[in-house]
Amino acid sequence: GAVVSQHPSRVICKSGTSVKIECRSLDFQATTMFWYRQFPKKSLMLMATSNEGSKATYEQGVEKDKFLINHASLTLSTLTVTSAHPEDSSFYICSARDAGTSGRTDTQYFGPGTRLTVL
Amino acid sequence: QQPVQSPQAVILREGEDAVINCSSSKALYSVHWYRQKHGEAPVFLMILLKGGEQKGHEKISASFNEKKQQSSLYLTASQLSYSGTYFCGTGFQKLVFGTGTRLLVSP
Question: Across the A/B interface, how many CB contacts are shorter than 8 Å?
């Protein structure tokens, strides 16, 4: 149980294009999902908190117009990197917090990550 | 503010023990521990919710000292599979991850 999927796992795109990353909780409902960014050999940096049915909350320094987040259902959140540039290249990881329906309240489960390379 | 972990890196021989510390400058409500292998997502190890609480997960256990705003992860009789980077995560509604500790277990 507690599986989170991410798609795609890898994406290479040209500078100026937009890329959408999907995050799904497969066997539990997640009212809250989180998006992180990780540079090589660094820690995970929280980008935004995604709440089902409402606007995402972005961390300081994260451009909301560049990183569009949509949380359309209790099992799906998407991150769209708009007009991507080489400096956006990174490892993007989502996590989903179990809503507590199975007694696993407060635990965050991570997706496998998406490696974005912008040429 | 990001929790600080120590040590930054540690190399062990199989069977040896290690302790990883996590210190926060803010009050802690809970501490989460994760292990991440290279190129993969973090894997949840355990969560500690109360001050002074200790938990165990096979040969990996942890303690949480709420007053000192610290948590420690204990790895006993380490196995090769323990290699990876360990992160603590703290926070109430959202997690802020620590600086990380890279652990390498060699045969």
Answer: 48
